Amino acid sequence: MSTALGTAASPAPAPAPVRRRRRVLPRLLLGLAALILLFSVVEAITGATELSSPGTIGAALGLAVPIGMAGLGGLWAERAGVVNIGLEGMMILGTWGAGWAGSQWGPWAGVGMAVLMGAFGGALHALATVAFGVDHIISGVAINILGFGLATYLAAATFVGVPGGGTNQSPPIPTMGTVTLPGISTAMADLANQDIFFISQVAGILGGLTTNVSYITILAGLLLVLTWWVLWRTPFGLRLRSCGEAPYAAETLGVKVYRYKTIAVVVSGALAGFGGAYLAIVAAQQYREGQTAGRGYIGLAAMIFGNWRPGGLAAGAGLFGYADALQLRSATAVHALLLVGAIALGVLAFLSIRRGSPVGAIVLGAIAAGMLAWYLLTDEVPPQFAFMTPYVTTLLVLSLATQRLRMPAADGQPYRRGGGR
């Protein structure tokens, strides 16, 4: 009787809250439309049509690929709990591999060799950090030094005395094909040249994305989607991400943490090597010493900007690639970019006030006012600053994005089997 009463009197369990799915696609399209509108306004004011020309967008897409692949490699490693700042060294190894194999057997052989060399660097990092418990930062720095030194040694050993080669470069690599959507590319280019407000800007962006797109660029986009599917839609991905969030809890559930961390870091290196293949095969058509130019580090910045997610990473890589493309194509457009930044930061300052963040609003407003004053008081940006544009953009974006970032809980923490019990 008492049991029955107790059962009757006990409160019913509260229903689980229904979590509304965020409407990501409408927000993304709205943000993209707002960005294009901003470019349209600035182009109408300044006449800097290179801001959204097909040439600029195409160059930005190409420059974003190695940054995005390095960032994607960092995402794989850090989602498993391993910090990988050795991406630069792995990318360097990939450039040599692409130059060596690509110059002898063609560009696709170069891609395969670049991936293998990057995976080799990732395996060394996994051996040091996962198997031997070396500090992740120390191991990453060592990989960067080793990658540069090994590539320099291998270049001297394999390219010296070969026609077109030398200590600092490989022989030329055969050209890899590109894809252009027939009809659409030409129509978008014609529409972009008609100077129709907003419509020409949209056409310029679509034209840049559909004209002379490398096969490696298409493959990079597929790898981005594949990463999202594997890590967020499969049991394998769930186990791998659990190693970066709570490895000891994952261990109690039977997850082989060492195995998943090792796989993640090797894949991380392979992706960085793939980014190096793009630099050697598509961007330069040969291996050149120093051609990575810090893109491995910028890839890490893109990953952090994207909050350790593929979609945000792609946006960050696109932003950094766009800044790099703009400084290469037009100093006038870089000067107009000051006005773009002033307006965008002004809008963000207004939104910060509405969200109850006066300190952030003051900082953003001050930066916006400084950029606006710079734009109004000058006619051009010094070439030295134009060259710095991608790196300044990296620092600015990261400083603005820090409040919404959440890294994997166990990222960078040492793990020993059974140590959490």
Number of DSSP helical runs: 17
Residue share in helices?
over 70%
Rg is: 24 Å
| Largest sheet: spatial strand order | 1-2
> Structural class given helices, strands, pairing?
mainly alpha
Distance between the termini: 43 Å
Task: Give the oligomeric state of the chains in this entry, treating copies of one chain as homo and distinct chains as hetero.
Answer: single chain
CATH architecture annotation name of the largest domain: Orthogonal Bundle
Order of helices and strands: HHHHHHEHHEHHHHHHHHH
Structural summary, described in words:
A two-stranded antiparallel ribbon has the order 1-2. It has helices spanning 2-9, 24-46, 54-79, 87-105, 107-131, 136-159, 184-192, 199-209, 215-233, 235-245, 247-252, 257-283, 295-305, 310-329, 331-354, 358-377, 383-401, and strands at residues 178-179, 213-214. The chain is mainly alpha-helical. Residues 1-21 have low confidence and may be disordered.
Quick recap:
The chain starts with a helix and ends in a 20-residue tail after the last helix. The protein has a two-stranded antiparallel ribbon.
Topology:
Layout: H1 2-9, H2 24-46, H3 54-79, H4 87-105, H5 107-131, H6 136-159, E1 178-179, H7 184-192, H8 199-209, E2 213-214, H9 215-233, H10 235-245, H11 247-252, H12 257-283, H13 295-305, H14 310-329, H15 331-354, H16 358-377, H17 383-401
Antiparallel strand pairs: 1-2
Index terms:
about 425 residues; mainly alpha; ABC transporter involved in vitamin B12 uptake, BtuC; two-stranded antiparallel ribbon; 2 strands; about 70% helix; globular; disordered N terminus
